[in-house]
TrEMBL record:
The keyword Lyase applies. This is Chorismate-pyruvate lyase. Keywords: Lyase, Pyruvate. The keyword Lyase applies. One of its GO terms (molecular function) is lyase activity. It comes from Nonomuraea jabiensis.
Length: 183
């Protein structure tokens, strides 16, 4: 089976749910938007902070981060949750040795990243698509880079996958969303 990829050319407008569209096109803090959409405080649960080669974690992140396939990255896997639901599953990669603030932020396990990013950072969308939420369950997903304001270098690769019970992954048909990769 061919590995799926994120498709930058797919528009968030192919998703039928307005809340899903708003989530996928939002360029600010995902945590902030989730709290407004769900009218609840979002909590972070860290599942993993580790070091790995980018190609062993998420091969599609190497080129956008400007890294060779075997380059080391700091890996952070988290879930965001509200009282009754897991809201999202997140994969964040930071090139090791590039930006101290990015590595420090990923190691700060108890807090969502968005509110603690540098004030003038840029979020550069890479694409939207579908990912597996569980066996046989599709969920919307998006990937983007956080660009360091001082050096203009990619600081973080972020992939967010959203609970399909909260954000409907249904599409309009033509232009189907492509699945995304990264275990």
């Amino acid at each position: 089976m061919k590995p799926p990829t994120i498709t930058p050319s797919v528009s968030a407008e192919i998703f039928t749910d307005p809340r899903t569209q708003a989530l996928l096109t939002h360029t600010g803090s995902t945590t902030w938007l989730l709290e407004r959409l769900l009218d609840e405080r979002v909590n972070v649960h860290t599942m993993e902070v580790s070091r790995a080669a980018v190609d062993r974690t998420c091969p599609e992140a190497a080129a956008p981060l400007g890294l060779a396939a075997a380059a080391p990255v700091l890996v952070r896997r988290t879930t965001l949750a509200v009282a009754r639901h897991q809201v999202s599953r997140n994969l964040v990669l930071a090139p090791l040795g590039r930006l101290v603030w990015a590595e420090h932020l990923l190691r700060s396990c108890a807090m969502p990243l968005g509110p603690h990013l540098p004030q003038s950072h840029e979020r550069r969308p890479l694409g939207v698509g579908l990912d597996a939420w569980g066996p046989g369950r599709a969920a919307v997903s998006r990937s983007y880079l956080v660009i360091d304001p001082g050096s203009a270098q990619p600081a973080l690769f972020i992939r967010e996958t959203f609970n399909p019970d909260l954000f409907d992954p249904s599409t309009t048909g033509p232009g189907e969303a492509a699945p995304v990769t990264c275990p």
